[in-house]
Design goal:
Layout lengths: L1 H23 L6 H8 L3 H7 L10 H15 L6 H19 L2 H13 L12 H15 L9 H21 L6 H14 L9
Helix pairs in contact: 1-2, 5-7, 5-9, 6-8, 7-8, 8-9
Length: 199
């Protein structure tokens, strides 16, 4: 039970922080604001985080919460590629509508500079587990090519998504991330479809 409570406290702090970052901006949000919004204490905050900057690396946690929701709403009868397209669309719609360009750029920068844990690459994240499950199912059903391992396809797909986010940040958000991804992700995934059987 203590472990679950600890996870809930950490999760409440993270959720409150990102809500405030979105509503009032990263710079204007203080540790006191986060503690108040999360209904925790300063002691709890500093037990989990060294300071406000440490929360930048937790955007991966926010993404994983979204993936957990999407697992419940995703049509299980969709093909593997359509499931991946659905997940990509929903995540990027969340980014377009609720995560500022500045915050996403900060996250990518912290991950580039991090010497230790790189949250975006953590293979134990919900994100990677879900992708592996979809890809493995797609290969077993003969939808996805079998000359690449599931892990190789997942790695390429995750790299593709990071590249789209990085380019969007680099371009100053001058276009809709979700609309652009909707137009190009199906082409990317087409290269991983199993070749059609000769008739």
């Amino acid at each position: 039970m203590p472990r679950k409570n600890a996870r809930n406290t950490r999760g409440r702090i993270i959720s409150a922080a990102w809500k405030l970052f979105y509503e009032q901006g990263y710079e204007a949000t203080t540790v006191e604001d986060i503690v108040f919004e999360s209904e925790t204490s300063k002691g709890s905050f500093y037990h989990y985080f060294d300071g406000k900057d440490a929360l930048l690396g937790t955007l991966a946690y926010v993404f994983d919460e979204k993936y957990e929701e999407l697992q419940e709403t995703m049509d299980p009868d969709l093909s593997a590629t359509d499931q991946l397209i659905y997940l990509n669309h929903e995540l990027f719609a969340m980014i377009d509508g609720g995560i500022s360009l500045d915050l996403l750029a900060r996250l990518l920068a912290t991950q580039l500079l991090a010497r230790g844990e790189k949250h975006l690459l953590d293979r134990n994240r919900t994100y990677f587990k879900l992708l592996r499950r979809i890809v493995a199912r797609g290969q077993a059903a003969g939808e996805l090519r079998a000359d690449r391992t599931a892990n190789e396809i997942v790695k390429a797909y995750a790299m593709w998504e990071r590249a789209l986010m990085y380019d969007w940040c680099l371009s100053g958000g001058e276009y809709s991330l979700v609309a652009y991804s909707d137009s190009v992700t199906p082409m990317f995934l087409a290269s991983y479809r199993a070749p059609a059987a000769d008739t």
